[in-house]
Amino acid sequence: MKALTDTPGARAGRDAVAQGAAARGLGRDATIYQVADRAGVSIATVSRVLRGTTPVAVETRRRVLAAVDELRFTPSRSARSLAEGQHAANGIVFPDLSGPYFAEVVLGYEEVAAELGRSVLILSTHGRQAARQMVLDLASRVDGLVILGRTVGDEVLADLTARGLPLVLMARDPVAGADTVNAENSESARVLTEHLVHDHGYRSFAFLGDATTSTDTSQRWAAFRTVLREAKVPGPRAPTPCAFDEEGGRIAADRLLRRKRPRVLVCANDEIALGAVLAAEALGLRVPDDLAVTGWDDVMAARHSRPGLTTVRQPMRELGAWAARRLHERLAGDASEPRHEVLPTQLVQRASCGCHQEENR
Amino acid sequence: MKALTDTPGARAGRDAVAQGAAARGLGRDATIYQVADRAGVSIATVSRVLRGTTPVAVETRRRVLAAVDELRFTPSRSARSLAEGQHAANGIVFPDLSGPYFAEVVLGYEEVAAELGRSVLILSTHGRQAARQMVLDLASRVDGLVILGRTVGDEVLADLTARGLPLVLMARDPVAGADTVNAENSESARVLTEHLVHDHGYRSFAFLGDATTSTDTSQRWAAFRTVLREAKVPGPRAPTPCAFDEEGGRIAADRLLRRKRPRVLVCANDEIALGAVLAAEALGLRVPDDLAVTGWDDVMAARHSRPGLTTVRQPMRELGAWAARRLHERLAGDASEPRHEVLPTQLVQRASCGCHQEENR
DNA sequence: GCCGGACATGAAAGCGCTTACAGACACGCC
DNA sequence: GGCGTGTCTGTAAGCGCTTTCATGTCCGGC
């Protein structure tokens, strides 16, 4: 049977080509033409049946669906994207840090995005030089993007929003035209620090973490500093710089503790804190008796370590979920003013700050 | 100036349309036509400059690059994919489990894939009914796929390989035509169990984990069972079924320990084990004095918990990395027989099995 | 002064889909 | 019996790229 619906000549040799080129790549997937052929209808009708945009006679629809089934037809995503001008996909880009924090955010994001029918692309910039290009590249594959931390410069973001690409920024200062979500930082830093100063009466502090690369950290540091000042407790001039992982915490704490002996180490995240505990113990210091240590995030290990790590719980999954939902609203046409959401956090008192000594939790 | 290279009429009103339709979606990104226009060349030349496929005169190239720059042109990914028949993207699909194990695998995968110039799409099936459709959908966006565990049925996999889609299976039984990577299970399970039986002399065991849904677990269970049998130590008939997370471990262990009092709990992963420790302590049992507990994976929390968790370290990132590399080879044309890689694991003895009692690590 | 080849570029066909538009057909009504 | 009206379906123009093929153009060699 000859193809009924082919543009004259246009499809000549299509199958031959398909076979040849099919060794790999997009492979020998059936195309809408083959389905149309088999069902004895035009490709337009096939498309209509598949998308349900226009009523199609019952019998026709049946034939089309049968053909789709027999050929195991799955529409080509790139063709569809090209025609629709949409990708039905969202991206998320995060920096080098690969710990539990980012994993949870991504998971929360993926879960919601999937529910909303969007695929999700991930990109970790690893502080690479090519970050800019990588993000731009990613941007050309998605309808919306969430960007964590200082992965790329403001110009890139401005560029993207100018292009009309909806953006949600996370753990990063706002930029014109983009929504942001963040966990509450200042208030929880204040609560934490006040707990240490007033409830425990500590008078000597250090702060581990790099406030220059992380907005979150600089906010926490600022509030921490303010509370000390208000309480007239001497404090460090600046945070002790420190890579945001366990090893970074261990090294920074080791170096610090060999020079000074603060009573408390306030750390910018749990991994640093856990590394610091290791360093302290290696130096023969008992936590919390000789040195109190606190973290941020409340990752799994914080709960299981002994002493249990006092920390500030962040709604990591919820951060991701919020971003996914917001992006969806934007893509659904919401053109309102950018929103700047701040999600609540919670102080979790465990033993590492000196609480619950009896049970060591 | 009139467009030099436009198909007569075909591009009429392009800009008007672009402006109109641009409010969102693919936006008013510049197209290759605009670049060509601005540089005074044909789109073919622009393409050639950008891809470097064919030599272009120096001066021409300069003009094109200038135009690209001025218009901030980024080629449309879907158009390119459609024309090339390639996506330059890979996918990874994993089941519901969202813990550190999967996070690490994904990270290792992303890192290598990014280096190889491929974007990565992630999909978590969450045991959803629609998993099949979601995976098929994902498959239409990528050139290759890695699939973890029993996320979808064998028919789907057969379907995909038949289509010529390179597949790497992880933590899953092989399927014709697909590569697989797994962590070594039997040998390490044997070493672990022998350690417990011979070095510690334990004679009463339970095994927590669901061997019916996880290939890894069923292999571990089998080797565990074999060692007990060889040593003539009575053991359970079957694993105690248990969800693969902390809460699952806590609940299953609680229920089990209220009925029986095995001396050892061998758990299918660290999260279950950590949950089990919680349950044991809640019942007033001391670990490891009253009850030894072991895990699998060596996640961060295993290292920090007290007692330190005895476990089997898996090279999670390396699993992901291997999959990414293998996929790349396949896409580069390697059509050799499927490979079935097994990556080494390592027993990590900490305190929860009864070792290192003095320091409680 | 003419010819063959190298080199640079343009024209146009596709990639596989969506969708505006138009055509075909059946029906019911005056 | 002619003519709207409504329903279903086909035609073809795009979507923005890549790539094959053809067309110049410019040279050096004879």
Structural description of this entry:
The structure is a homodimer of 361-residue chains. In chain A, α2 packs across α4, α9 runs parallel beside α10 and α11 packs across α12. The longest helix of chain A has 16 residues. Chain A is built from 14 helices and eleven strands. Chain A starts with 13 loop residues before the first helix and ends in a 13-residue tail after the last strand. Chain A has 361 residues and is α/β, with parallel strands linked by helices. Chain A has three domains: 70 residues, lambda repressor-like DNA-binding domains (434 Repressor (Amino-terminal Domain)); 123 residues, Response regulator (Rossmann fold, 3-Layer(aba) Sandwich); 136 residues, Rossmann fold (3-Layer(aba) Sandwich), CATH 3.40.50. In chain A, the strands form three sheets. The first copy, chain A, has a six-stranded parallel β-sheet with strand order 2-1-3-4-5-10, sandwiched between helices. At the A-B interface, α5, α6, β2, α7 and α13 of A face α5, α6, β2, α7 and α13 of B. The first copy, chain A, binds a DNA duplex (30 and 30 nucleotides) through α3 and α5.
